[in-house]
Design a protein that fits this description.
55 residues; 2 helices
Length: 55
């Protein structure tokens, strides 16, 4: 019983950190794409939408 609980707990901890790392990678990619778009003076789709709303 106790060993099963420890195994489940360990798997949960490992899964949490794996998902956290994947989420960090996705956020990093999105941020890099936005940064690259700003550097090349391109507007992202979100920027175009906010510009249309302001006008």
């Amino acid at each position: 019983m106790v060993t099963e609980l420890l195994i489940v707990w360990a798997l949960g901890v490992v899964a949490f950190f794996v998902l956290w790392a994947l989420l960090a990678k996705v956020v990093q990619r999105i941020t890099q794409k936005k940064y690259d778009a700003v550097q090349t003076n391109e507007e992202t789709p979100e920027d175009k939408q906010s510009t249309n709303i302001e006008q």
